[in-house]
Every structure is written in C-alpha cells, then in structure tokens.
Amino acid sequence: MARKSRKLVVVSNRGPYRHEASRGRERWVRAAGGLVAALDPVLQKRGGVWVSAKPAKDFDSVTVPAPHLSYDLAHISIKRGDQRGFYEGVSNAVLWPLLHGFEPTIQVGDAPWSSYVGANQAFADTTISTSGPSDLVWVQDYHLMLVPGMLRAKRSKARIGWFCHIPWPPPDTFGILPWGEEILEGLLGADVLGFHLPEYAEHFRQCVERFTPHRVSRGTIHYRDREVNTIAAPIGIPVDELQALANDPDLGREVDRIRELMGNRQLMLGVDRLDYTKGIPERLAAFERLLRRDTGARKRYALIQVMVPSRTDVKAYADLKEEIDRMVGDINGRYAETGRVPIHYLYRNLSQRALFAHYRAADVALVTPLRDGMNLVAHEFAAARTDEDGVLILSEFAGAAKHLKGAVLVNPYDVDSTTAAIYRALTMKPSEKRKRMRSMRAEVMRLDVHRWADRYLGALEGK
Q1: In this structure, which CATH number among 3.40.50.150, 3.20.20.70, 3.90.380.10, 3.40.50.2000 belongs to the domain 8-235+449-460?
Q2: Helix (H), strand (E) counts: the chain
Q3: How far apart are the first and last CA of the chain?
Q4: Which of 40, 60, 141, 165 is catalytic?
Q5: Which CATH superfamily hosts domain 239-446?
Q6: 22 or 96, greater pLDDT
Q7: Residue 101 pLDDT > 70, yes or no?
Q8: Chain CA centroid to CA 42, Å
Q9: Which residues make Cβ contacts (< 8 Å) with residue 235, sequence separation at least 6?
C-alpha cells in the first residue's frame, strides 16, 4: 500500500488570493507573478496550507472568479512600519538587485535589517502554529531566507525545503552583503535548497565555501550533524490547464479581434512586470531602431507592450516608469500615422485569457530581460502556440534560454543585434518557425510545473 503523502505547507511573502467585500459586492483578486502561477496549481492538486503575509491592496493583481480552493490559507500580521522595512527596505532595495547582479542599485546603507529578521520570525512562528512535525514545509524565495533556520531551531527533525525563484550570484557579488553569513546560516536550516539552474546552485555552494566554515562536497553541504542538498530544478507552467485554454474556440475569436484592431500588421509582444531587470527600455530602443532604418516598418509592424504595475512607491521603479512612458510617447510621436501608432502600451495586468489571446495574436514575442531566474512568459508563449507558429526572441541572460533552444537568443544590452533579431524573426520562413516552435513546445511540456514540484518534493521527502 502506497504511503500517504505528507501535508504540504508552502510559505511565501505573497499569497495567491485576496478576498474583498465593498458595498455589498464581493470580488476575488489573484496575485500576479511566476511564483503564484507555479505554486497555486500544485497546492490545488495536492492540498495543504499556504502561509503568506496578508496581501496589501496595492499588490500586483487581477480580478478572478471565486476560486474553489482545495487548500487552506494562513496569513501572518506584520506592523506596517516593519512590513515596509522588510519588503521595501531590505528585500527589494538590497536582496533583489544583489541576487540579480545589479550592484549599482543595491542600497545597503541604512537598510533596516532588524525588520527583515523580525518578519522572518513572524513567518516562522505562523508556520509552526499551522503545521505538524511531520509535514513538509516548502519556503519560497529571497524574502524568507532566515525562515528555514528559525524553523529548524524549533523542529530539529522536520523536513524543510527552500526554493530560489531568482538567480543566485557568485561570491564576489554576494560578499557585498554585510549579513551574508547570517543569510547562508538561515538557509542551511533547510534539508533541500532548490535553484533553477546548475550554475545558480554552484554559485550558492561557492558562497558557503567562502563565507562559512561548512564543508561542501559535490551537491551536498555538511552542516553540523546534517547534510543539506542543493539541486537544480527548473520551474515550468501548468501545461494541461494552459493547453486547454489555448485550444478554446472562443479564444480564436479574440485573437482575430486583436489582429483586426491592430490593422493586420505583424505584431510583436512584450509582457513584463515593471522592473529594471526586464530590459524594457533596451527593447524599445531596438524597436525604434527598426522603425528608423526601414521607412515602411511603421505600416507593417506594431509592438504591444504589456507592463504590469509593480512597486510603484519605490523611487527606482517610479523613475523607470517615467523613462518608459517618455520613450513610448517619443517613439509614437515620431512614427505614428493617422489612426495608427507603432507601440500599443498597456500599463495593467491582463487576465490569463486575455494574455493568451495576445500570445496567439503575436507573430513575435520579445522576452529580453537583462537578468531573470527563469521567465515563465517564454514558456507560456510556446504553450499558447498550438498552431506551431510564432517566434520567440529570448535574452541569453534568462534561465529559460538554457532550455528553450528553439528561441532566437539575443544579448539585450546590444541594441543593434536585438534589432537584427527582430527583423530576422519577422521575416523567418514558416518551415523554420515550425521547427523552432516544435522544439520549444516539447521542452515546455517536459518542464511541466507538476513535474517540477514532484521532483523537488520527492527530494525533500528523501525518495
């Protein structure tokens, strides 16, 4: 008789849903981003509990029908000042740019480290109160790097995992952190540490070797009386659910409507959260160069840029939005014709259905981050293309580039080469497009999110 799976406890800063009631009307809001997109279907299938901060009203989100949850939600409470210090002062101002390798934007200075420690302790306390000693605890991402150690201090025999949804830098970059050893010790409270790529896992082990006394051999760190395993487990998307959406006949009508509204021009599509790691200004510069070099391009091509609002109260993000707004306005002002603009700029989150209609309508998807842990937009675009059409232009600095070999790879810092790649994609022969898309779709199917979760949880259970 098969052993019953242990209860799964997911712990993340951001939870999946927020319920609102106002003036007798109710609505459910779903958080945007790859973490929720990846883990919600896993918990829906397996059950368990999701521990998260109580979602703020200004988080990146989209309204959805009332979900039928097969798992429980548990929220922690952090004082507003501590929440700002933990989330904005440390997680976003220090850890996010550091782990992505954006050293000039790291703001260590007066970063409120004590707020980060206190918030992590609150997550650990709530996790302990909502779980049992034999449950599997799966902590997520850079916001909660002290939680594994805090849990281990209370439950020495627990099975604890942590997964990094963004890159991990080499030791020379990580060494900027004044609290680096404390973070590494916190993470080593886990049994299994997961990363998207082998090189991220190797960077982590190098950091342990340089900044702690613990011995490293192959993929294992010998930590006191335990062994901590580091694994590369590339994340994916819920393939079956998204294939069903892509094949919906009603979606085809929406695709036709988008193409007609865009004047049946060849369409390029960018879908990004507002962030300086996503390379949006560089992408706009490459598109502008195409318009400048080819006088007929404005009549033949159009770019739809979807940008999801994010961290708008952080100065770096507000400045970035101002720069993107200015660039879009400038390009449209110079290259528009009556009734037609070259860039259609949507500053909002789209529902998954609307997003897939845009994936299907596009001739080319531009996924050109300056650095990204994986990037599931690339996976979703391939999943949407059941017609085996469309071309993906993909940054070589996205984790997805190691897997989606059918993409046209670019260095997003090289504007000229990106412009050339865009033109190549727009003029590619149908036979080459089909060959490339078939290759990518096969890999996306292989990297299904449920397989990712099963592989990681299998390692966590010691199978």
Answers
A1: 3.40.50.2000
A2: 18, 18
A3: 16
A4: 165
A5: Glycogen Phosphorylase B; (3.40.50.2000)
A6: 96
A7: yes
A8: 16
A9: 34, 38, 165, 196, 374, 376, 447, 449, 452
Count Cβ atoms below 10 Å from residue 341 Cβ, excluding itself. Answer: 16
Question: Structure tokens of 269?
Answer: 């599509």
Mean pLDDT of 393-416: 98
The reply to whether 372 belongs to the active site is: yes
Per-residue model confidence as pLDDT tens digits over 429-452: 999 999 999 999 999 999 999 899
> What are the domain boundaries of the chain?
8-235+449-460, 239-446
pTM attached to this predicted model: 0.92
pLDDT band for 324, please (50, 70, 90 cuts): very high
* DSSP state string for 35-75: HHHHHHHHHHHH--EEEEEPPPTTSSEEEEPPP--SSEEEE
Equal CATH topology for 8-235+449-460 and 239-446 = yes
Q: Of how many residues is the chain composed?
A: 463
What does the pLDDT average to over 84-94? 93
Whether the CB-CB separation of 50 and 30 falls below 8 Å is answered with: no
Kindly tell me if the per-residue pLDDT of 256 is higher than 60.
Answer: yes
pLDDT per residue over 308-323, tens digit each?
Answer: 988 877 788 999 999 9
Catalytic residue among 372, 379, 403, 450: 372
